[in-house]
């Protein structure tokens, strides 16, 4: 086979971009054996050419996109600048020019994935995005290839390291959410503005991508019901421990007869479940298929080199396809049009904590309201009692989200209930 040097351009030189460049340089001498030819990054697009970058030759740097897109020798574009624009325009221009694209851009894939995959298919180009979900954990390729023989029905995962770190600290060190968040920022797990992480938005984008691939139906970020962990308190943690459970922010996707269920929210999880033992900033994705049964993928979900590992793995895959002239093998796998179930129709178990008047008949009144809204009570706990106030914890059976929402609305109007302090779904 005729060998040639495959040339690539890197868009962005932040944490991930820097990791990608370093990792390719680290494996430089082995690339010919891994791919069958040499691989070289010949251009790196940056925003500020004057910024000093140790170990990067100035001749590699450019702030001119046209210099890259018009270079016919550059066959692979590696996009790690993030966000919607200008990333989307650059990727589309690259694909239309017949260049192959590797990206880590979860925001873009979760919202505009169909358009990008269609453009790749039209050009016969590779468009790979393993790093868009769960950092260094292989999950996109397994869903598309290794598990392709399965009818997948469940994809449930911890796909945000920041929130998992915070919840781990709350459970293991008995600290508040606020204190754990401060520590996460100090260690670099949380951004200065952590909203996307702690409100479940980051995980929601990743769940949309995984659900689309697993269930062969286009799921976008707007389809995903998202809630964060900001309302989880030390009392909730204590009750979860009493139930021999933990609390995790889970991305949940189910393929049911009535449609696809997708959501991100905190869930009380039995300690026996494999996801319960996933600590610190680690991620994990639990998958169920009709042939493979249960499988779990575990590892570092973010960071310079874990994410770079996924990006460079995709680059190597594209380079092999170029070398063997078989690019564009796997494009969009969303060949179904399964409806997305309305969230009000999704069924969940619930953990409820409320402050009520300490007097006879209150629990009976609550039970009557729940009964009227088809909510079945499984367990009641009353631990903290004062002269005029008591704290009730109620665990329910599975109930439609819409029924629970209506029941809670009616409860909040009751004079005998001071406050519904916590509403947490339960994966029991």
What do these coordinates show?
This protein is α/β, with parallel strands linked by helices and 428 residues long. It is 35% helix and 27% strand. Strand 9 (245-256) and strand 10 form a beta hairpin. The longest helix has 20 residues, at 304-323. The protein is elongated, with a radius of gyration of 24 Å.
Entry keywords:
Rossmann fold; alpha/beta; eleven-stranded mixed beta sheet; 428 residues; methionine biosynthesis; sodium; 3 domains; Dihydrodipicolinate Reductase, domain 2; EC 1.1.1.3; 35% helix; six-stranded parallel beta sheet; Alpha-Beta Plaits
Quickly give the structural class.
Answer: alpha/beta
Any idea what the radius of gyration is?
Answer: 24 Å
CATH superfamily of the largest domain: Dihydrodipicolinate Reductase, domain 2
* Strand proportion: 25-35%
GO molecular function: homoserine dehydrogenase activity; metal ion binding; NADP binding
Active site: 206 (proton donor)
Cofactor: a metal cation
InterPro entries: ACT-like_dom_sf, ACT_dom, Asp/hSer_DH_NAD-bd, HDH, HDH_cat, HDH_CS, NAD(P)-bd_dom_sf
């Amino acid at each position: 086979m005729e060998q040639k040097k495959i040339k690539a351009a890197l868009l962005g030189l932040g944490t991930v971009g820097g990791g990608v460049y370093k990792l390719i340089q680290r494996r430089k001498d082995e690339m010919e054996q891994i791919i069958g030819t040499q691989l070289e990054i010949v251009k790196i697009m940056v925003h500020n050419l004057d910024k000093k970058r140790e170990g990067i030759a100035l001749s590699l740097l450019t702030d001119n996109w046209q210099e890259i897109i018009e270079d016919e020798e550059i066959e692979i574009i590696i996009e790690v600048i993030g966000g919607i624009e200008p990333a989307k325009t650059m990727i589309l221009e690259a694909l239309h020019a017949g260049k192959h694209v590797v990206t880590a851009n979860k925001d873009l894939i979760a919202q505009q994935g169909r358009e990008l995959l269609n453009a790749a298919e039209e050009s016969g180009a590779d468009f790979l995005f393993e790093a868009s979900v769960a950092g260094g954990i292989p999950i996109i390729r397994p869903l598309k290839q290794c598990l392709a023989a399965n009818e997948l029905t469940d994809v449930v995962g911890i796909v945000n390291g920041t929130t998992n770190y915070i919840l781990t600290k709350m459970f293991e060190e008995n600290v508040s959410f606020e204190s754990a968040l401060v520590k996460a920022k100090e260690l670099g797990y949380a951004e200065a503005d952590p909203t996307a992480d702690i409100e479940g938005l980051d995980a929601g984008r990743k769940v949309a991508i995984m659900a689309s691939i697993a269930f062969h139906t286009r799921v976008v970020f707007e389809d995903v019901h998202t809630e964060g962990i900001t309302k989880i308190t030390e009392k909730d943690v204590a009750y979860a421990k009493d139930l021999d459970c933990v609390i995790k922010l889970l991305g949940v996707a189910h393929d049911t007869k009535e449609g696809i269920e997708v959501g991100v929210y905190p869930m009380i999880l039995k300690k026996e479940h494999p996801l319960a033992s996933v600590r610190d900033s680690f991620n994990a994705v639990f998958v169920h298929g009709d042939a493979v049964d249960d499988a779990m993928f575990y590892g570092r979900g973010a960071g310079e080199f874990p994410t770079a590992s996924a990006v460079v793995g995709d680059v190597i895959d594209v380079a092999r396809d170029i070398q063997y002239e078989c690019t564009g093998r796997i494009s969009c796998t969303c060949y179904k049009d399964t409806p997305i179930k309305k969230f009000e129709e999704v069924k969940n178990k619930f953990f409820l904590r409320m402050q009520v008047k300490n007097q006879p008949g209150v629990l009976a009144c609550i039970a009557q309201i729940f009964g009227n809204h088809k909510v079945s009570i499984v367990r009641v706990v009353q631990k903290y009692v004062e002269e005029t106030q008591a704290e009730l914890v109620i665990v329910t059976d599975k109930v439609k989200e819409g029924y629970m929402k209506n029941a809670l609305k009616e409860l909040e109007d009751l004079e005998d209930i001071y406050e519904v302090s916590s509403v947490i779904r339960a994966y029991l």
